TrEMBL record:
Keyword Metal-binding: no
Bias-annotated ranges (Low complexity): 475-486
GO cellular component: plasma membrane
Transmembrane spans: 49-68, 119-140, 152-172, 242-262, 337-356, 362-384, 396-418, 438-460
GO biological process entries: iron ion transmembrane transport
Name by which UniProt lists this protein: Uncharacterized protein
Disordered: annotated segments: 467-494
Top-level lineage group: Eukaryota
Keywords from the named record: Membrane, Transmembrane, Transmembrane helix
Annotated membrane topology: Multi-pass membrane protein
The organism of origin for this protein: Vitis rotundifolia
Length: 510
């Protein structure tokens, strides 16, 4: 990874030096899965559930800031800490779960890109999946020119998503007063409001983001001193807050568009049918009928930008996960190819066999998997960032620790409720064969017991003395160090990071 030189003066240039990681992370909260959930929430409840989006992104800001703080303070990302802390069997389980999370997050992103290509160029869905994989590899090729180029490319795609939906929202003319009320007055009225609220929160579950953010912040050349680490943490919090605020505005715009279109008393019967069950594909027809062909094209462009930016960051997260848990030394292009192929395979198979309807169902399954996966990244993160041995004086304050754990357990509880109610509903469904229901119950019950036991272990496990010692040694050294591999510049990082080429980039010319 190329290290970016931090400019000390003027202040705006210093802040600009830190801009990038938060925007790469924020695109996961704008992926096609989120867009679909937002569209359905707006169609069903108008602006009533906007406060859920606000709460979800506030929680995302808190945990993402903890992830960034872990990387800045220790020079290691989350997967590396997991490898140091847990025994091999647990470590391999966490690695496999993290890889599954990357694949699950990638499914709606790849399918969303394929739908966008289909809308714009009438390419078959399966063909769009292949093109999505190819174009993602081309974007990731920007890494060879430095991390800043990739950050700029993703930032542009985020602005494209926001610009397209804001343009459509301006034409849809939602009520500003109703939007403000929906954001700040909590309500859960109407049929299915609780279900849709949980789905909105579930769509904001991005466990791979916690691994990614802690790794991306190590791309900045930060002296390993108390003041430098504290200053960097402060600037990364500001940068993450700005990026997630933009993500919030875009999510609000998406909910508002479908809320305005579907609540129109003069909507045609065809539009009302589309509003009953919005998918990434049917949303295009809805906007075309309600606002005109141009809005459908803008929607497709935003979907394409959303899918491409999200798949890039998902592939990037997969690289760090593989590197941190397994310490695999692979060339950059090969890591990209392996990660992309692993992630794209399920989407391609489902699209070939099930077509667009199968792809839409796969997005729902992916959201359930992400809800299932979140605690296995969140609990280790909260344990590590509240550890004096690992973080030294940079550990989370008591107030932040309590708030993080409270929100974390609330999120886990909501996810478990979402999972259990969905699974029980499927098992007890009258359309499901009785034999299938019995077999599903026999399989699901032990899995849930194992799931609870694993979470309990991660929560109460005593800290490893070996990893604590190494963390303490790092944080008591307040002088900048040089990497022992002989590469110039930078602070002393983990062995996996030493294998990377270090390139000092002047932010003024990046």
């Amino acid at each position: 990874m190329a290290l970016v030189q931090i400019q000390d003066t003027p202040l705006w240039k210093k802040l600009l030096s830190y801009v990038g990681p938060g925007f790469l992370v924020s695109v996961a909260y704008l992926d096609p899965g989120n867009l679909e959930t937002d569209l359905q929430a707006g169609a069903n409840h108008k602006y009533q559930l906007l406060w859920i989006v606000l709460v979800g992104l506030i929680f995302a800001f808190i945990i993402q800031s903890r992830s960034a703080n872990l990387g800045v303070a220790t020079g290691k990302h989350l997967s590396e800490h997991c490898k140091m802390e847990y025994p091999k069997p647990v470590n391999y389980c966490l690695w496999m779960l993290a890889e599954v999370a990357v694949i699950a997050a990638d499914i709606p992103e790849v399918i969303g890109t394929a739908f966008a290509i289909n809308i714009l160029f009438h390419v078959p869905i399966w063909g769009g999946v292949l093109l999505a994989g190819l174009s993602t590899l081309l974007l990731l090729g920007l890494q060879r020119y430095g991390i800043r180029k990739l950050e700029v490319a993703i930032g542009v795609l985020v602005l494209v998503v926001g610009g397209c939906f804001c343009s459509v929202m301006a034409h849809a003319r939602p009520s500003v007063k109703d939007i403000a009320t929906g954001l700040f007055v909590p309500k859960l009225n109407g049929d299915g409001a609780t279900r849709d609220a949980i789905a909105l929160l579930g769509a904001l579950n991005m466990p791979h983001n916690l691994f990614l953010h802690s790794a991306l912040v190590t791309s900045r050349k930060i002296p390993h001193s108390f003041d430098a680490i504290r200053s960097a943490s402060k600037y990364f919090i500001i940068e993450s807050g700005l990026a997630l605020f933009i993500a919030l505005l875009i999510n609000v715009a998406v909910v508002s568009v479908s809320g305005s279109v579907c609540s129109n008393p003069h909507a045609s019967s065809q539009n009302k049918d589309h509003c009953e069950d919005i998918t990434l594909e049917s949303a295009s027809f809805l906007l075309n009928n309600a606002l005109g062909n141009w809005s459908s094209k803008l929607y497709a462009v935003s979907l394409l930008a959303s899918g491409q930016s999200s798949t890039v960051t998902g592939t990037y997260a997969g690289q760090y996960i593989m590197q941190g848990f397994l310490d695999l030394r692979m060339t950059l292009w090969l890591r990209n190819l392996v990660t992309r192929c692993i992630a794209i395979a399920p989407s391609l198979m489902v699209c070939i066999i099930g077509g667009s309807s199968g792809a839409a169902k796969l997005i729902i399954i992916a959201s359930m998997i992400l809800s299932f996966e979140l605690p296995f990244a969140l609990i280790p993160l909260l344990r590590f960032t509240s550890s004096k041995a690992k973080m030294g004086d940079h550990k989370s304050s008591i107030m932040v620790t309590l708030l993080s754990w409270l929100l974390g357990f609330c999120s886990i509880g909501i996810n478990i409720y979402f999972l259990s109610s969905s699974l029980i509903g499927w098992v007890t469904n009258y359309d499901t064969p009785k034999t299938g229901s019995i077999l599903a119950g026999v399989v699901i019950f032990p899995v849930m017991i194992l799931y609870a036991a694993m979470l309990f272990y991660l929560t109460i496990k005593r800290e490893s003395s070996d990893s604590s010692t190494r963390g303490s040694e790092q944080l008591t050294n307040n002088t900048p160090t040089t990497d022992t591999t002989g590469l110039e510049g930078g602070t002393k990082f983990s062995s996996t990071q030493r294998a990377h080429e270090i390139e000092v980039v002047d932010i003024a010319y990046a």
